[in-house]
Amino acid sequence: MNYSHLFFAKLILALLVTCSTNVTAAPDQVRPLRVVASFSILADLTRNIGGDVVDVAALVGPDADAHVFEPSPADARRLAQADLVIVNGLHFEGWLARLITASGYRGPIVVATTNVNVRRGRGVPDPHAWQDLRNGRIYVENIRAALVNARPAHAASLNERAEAYGAKLVALDQATRARFTAVPASSRRVITLHDAFGYFGAAYGVEFLAPQGWSTDSEASAANVAQLIRQMREQRVRAVFLENISDPRLMLRLVREGGGVIGGTLYSDALSPPGTAADTYLRMFEHNTATIIKAIAPSAATAPRATAGAP
Length: 311
Ligand code: ZN
Fold this sequence. Notes:
Blueprint: H1 3-29, E1 33-39, H2 40-50, E2 54-60, H3 73-80, E3 84-87, H4 96-103, E4 109-111, E5 120-121, E6 124-125, H5 133-150, H6 155-181, E7 189-191, H7 198-204, E8 207-209, H8 222-235, E9 239-243, H9 249-258, E10 261-266, H10 281-296, H11 298-301
Helix pairs in contact: 2-5, 3-4, 5-6, 6-10
């Protein structure tokens, strides 16, 4: 081998080393982790914890109903390119298994409700666990652990963000409980269309009546509607709420026949569009609490209240 051969051999070796170093370094240091969350609330939690380490997309967007979602080919393509998928679980995303198969996605699937104390009725789990802010903290911990696992180089910043965001959830949880405690227990009874607020009711001492069950995939039965109208009249339950994901017609009938009043719109299973009142998990909670309190205890609604601050 003469001198020039040696030179080229060294050059090629140097190029190979450079290339292989770039290949291993690129995913963790250059490109954000591509996360697909099943619905808007999980996407918001993930953005809060992940910051610029993640690039998050939601399959079911603002004001959309995850119970009856029909995935498109574009959703399958999005899933195919994901590094991480985050779902609620507890049968909330009945369409997910088929979508995962169709997409060919083989990466990790994080179930955000892991370790949540699940409410059940006749053995069936209530999926709406995010409606208790203490469960929100469990979601945060599950998502944090998954992001750290996927991007260990960013563990410190991810842990820091999760802790700061978790502290906001704790503060809002305590403020929410205090606000409802100030309202007489006999007034804390309201009506929504689908039974999405069982965790909220148990956490903050509010009784939610609903003609429809835990899913929106079947209509409220005539018997349930008739019974609810009777109960409204007998027990003078007046506060009726619309939901951002549901058709308001049945609720307007309950108001007419049961003698109720529409108290506003609650955000049950989806955030509102960006820039509107309930466009983050924290703002959704503040909006729902303020809307319910205003309807059941108008005098308490004007009292000073804690705010969660930034999203
Ligand atoms: Zn629901």
